[in-house]
Please model this.
Amino acid sequence: MLSAKLHAAINEQINAELWSAYLYLSMSMDAEAKGYKGVANWFFVQWQEEQDHARILMNYLNSRDCKVELKPIAEVRTEWNSVLEMYQETLKHEKVVTGLINNLAAIAAEDRDFASSNMLVWFIDEQIEEEESARDMIFATESVEGDKYGMYQLDKELAARTYTQASPLAASAE
Ligand code: FEO
Model:
């Protein structure tokens, strides 16, 4: 069993991951509506990845004999002024998530809950990648600003992004 504080914080993080999934699904739908099928695909993959993050935490709570309590998922924005704005918001949001993960790691350390600390290492590393990929997308989108053909090419590239199941889930399926 986890401490009540860590149990509650991980339950909140499950909600935060599902909210992230919902945010990126909303960006995907907005991009699709505006004709950016590749951008829509990029955010659709992001939606799948965020659901994996929630799933990893749910599996973890279950494995530690702690009940998962699902809370309502708050409303998300549905319209962005540009693709660049979507990626800027993505980076801003991922920085918030990094803070939440660091907070979980701090509680686990306070509790001397080494199993939880170990589980959270994957999320700490993942947040480095999440922030880096958002920064890369801001750079790519800024590079083609005002260039419609460039944006068309970038959109085509983003159509190639594919979903890969998060490694902790792939490992548990073996
Ligand atoms: Fe679940 Fe984008 O971090």
Remarks:
- Residues 17, 20, 50, 53, 94, 97, 130 surround MU-OXO-diiron (CB under 6 Å).
